[in-house]
What does this fold into?
Amino acid sequence: MRSFPQGIHPKPHKEQTRYTAIQRLEFAPYFVLLLNQQIGKPSLPLVQEGEEVRRGQLIAQANGDFSSPLHAPVTGRVLKRGLNLDMNGSMQDSLVIQPFPASGQSPQLEAPCDPFALSSLELIEKIKTIGMVGLGGAAFPTHLKLKSSLDKKAHTLVINGCECEPFLTADHRIMLEQPAKLLRGIRIILHILGAKQAVLALEENKLDALRAIEPHLLPHDQISLVPLKTKYPQGAEKILIQALFQQEVPSGGLPADLGIMVANVTTMYEVGQLLPLGQGIIERVVSVSGDGVQKPGNYLIPMGTPLEFILETLGLCTKSPQVIFGGPMMGKSVVCLQTPTTKGVTGILVFRGESRPKPQAPLPCINCGECLQVCPLRLNPCEMARQAANNQLEPLLKRFHLFDCFECGSCAWVCPSKIPLTQLFKAAKKQIRQKKLHPLKSA
Amino acid sequence: MRNYLQVLVEPAPHLRRALDTKQIMGGVFFALLPIWGLSIFKYGLVSLFMGLVCMAVCCGLEYWILALKKQSPSRWLNDYSALITGLLLALTLPPSLPFWMAALGAAVSVTLGKHAFGGLGHNPFNPAIVGRVFLQASFTAPMTSWVPPWQKNRFFELLASNLTLPLMRPNLDALSGATPLGQYKFAGVATDWWSLLLDQTPGSLGEVSPLLILLLGLALAWKRYLDWRIPLAMLAGSLIFSGVVEALGWGSNPLVFLCSGGLMLGAWFMATDMVSSPVTPLGVWLYGGLIALLIVVIRTWGGLPEGVAFAILIGNAVTPLLHLVTQPRVYGTPKNKALG
It folds into this structure.
């Protein structure tokens, strides 16, 4: 079975949610739609305070091409437009919507279509109008990725079903429960790209999903299902490409440079489900897990649902919670519980603060070299940490390839001295960006 | 609404491997204890006191230096590193060495070998070896005089030379015995393999059954407390190089070579000192191989019968150079241009 040479094996912790079917979470008493849910420019609101909106209605349009539109998650009234806290605790422009308690909640559709009768460019425009972004966590607008992949004549579509982050099982459940819509999404993207083949990669611990998808494959489908050895961070696109094809994405480049486009399973599923209907993306499957929540599972949650409502509904069993948006390796600790979910939230992990390991002061690096053995990019994390601690930005940038690091956290996971390696690298990158030492990435 | 909740925030990754530095160092220390135990069984009170003296001096000085550096001395034994340095040093010393010399060696280990460079994690050389080499250079005669093991009254009395007053020269005339390597080098007498395995030969306190050291080393490697590639490279290298030397008619049996002197202890417990050994995948193999080559060269052609300590010291010294030339190629960078 294929894989990549380095990497780590953290405990998977998936049993809590992998067997529970996807359920719908009830509507919150109010929704907060942050306007910058995607990478790129924030969306521009089209509705006024006090206006009534319908579920699925376009309420904020894309601000230029490097942006995405937003749709109303519920039928209700726009209470106000104003600042709200995001997960980092900073204030962001947002729309607050209060649902009508008794109204029908069937979504409003834009314009249903037969995707295979349309041209690539028409379909890319459609994907933009339904507000699709990368739902694996990055929230990069899908239409932009498709455009650049089309320009570079991508010949291979890789569907990322690795879900290598511990605790998360949303992709796994979607593959198990919705193989037909997932495959429809893949066929639509293959049609857009005119690509020769699609490869759906998943890890060994999800072979049941592979068996669930197989019967839905059509004879003429150019889609192969490839199991990989379970390992972290296999779901990172550069690493996945290495595991599948033994090819390396050039430093500073994109998978498109190799003629490959990588997309996440949930994104493909939502494209397959929403695009033919012409419906905007207003809800997504989120894994809620961890020892701090009473009813863990995979839930269909509308974007903009406040975190505190989710915790209340699913039962918070601690007075000092630690909540993480995303997986435990790369996800972020949420600073305040009022923050709403967005398109990029793949998982909500709730840990009991009481059972978390006490933060210890890091010990000096003892040069054990474990970080070099696990770094999937073959970087030298311990030496980089020394350079970062001494503020040696130039060598970090030029000799140590700091900007190739995608902060997977494997080095910090393995470090016996508990040195916060990932955090040191993030801080160094931030400084380099501020000083504009790195011409390409100073945006 | 939920103001009473105390939200915890920390940077990613939110999972950490359970193994920590304290556990690794503790594991190494506890793996040394059986070796010390066998040494006490073999040499009696001498070995017990030598170990205690060295560890006491190392820990005491570590405490004092940490206090001087205004680092919290409450953590002084937390990382076991001073204990390991003291015990390792004791195990490399000959049984007849005066305790005051051992104490001086321990002091040099912790001060010059470790804290002069900045303490834990910063020493370019293995501190225990720095202490041993200091003693060998300063007190050559006491460091190369040996007593036979398994003496009848070993559990009841120390050797007269052990109790030499500080700064006094010990009387070594009464001592007899030579290490297998010394016998081979200076008298041309080969020792058979079995007497090495069964601990019948004189030597340093830690030159006990190679089999025991091997087993303990393997246990540490299995727990990932040491890098298995270094001892493997060193032992395999020693076998190969000494085999070549034997085939050319210049040396003794490679198996005897492997089991004699400090080679086993050095391979599993000294060359593997993480701080002073390389971290790059290729560098680790080169480091082990280089040390093996140096041991063979020193033992065969050098003026000393034993060369493990010097070989490891030189290996430590070239570690930064190995780092320079063995950096792996970073993912996605051109194949011919290495980082460095």
About this structure: The longest helix of chain A spans residues 179-193. The CA atoms of residues 85 and 91 of chain A lie 5 Å apart. Residues 370-434 of chain A form one domain. Chain A has three domains: 28-108+282-355, 115-277, 370-434.
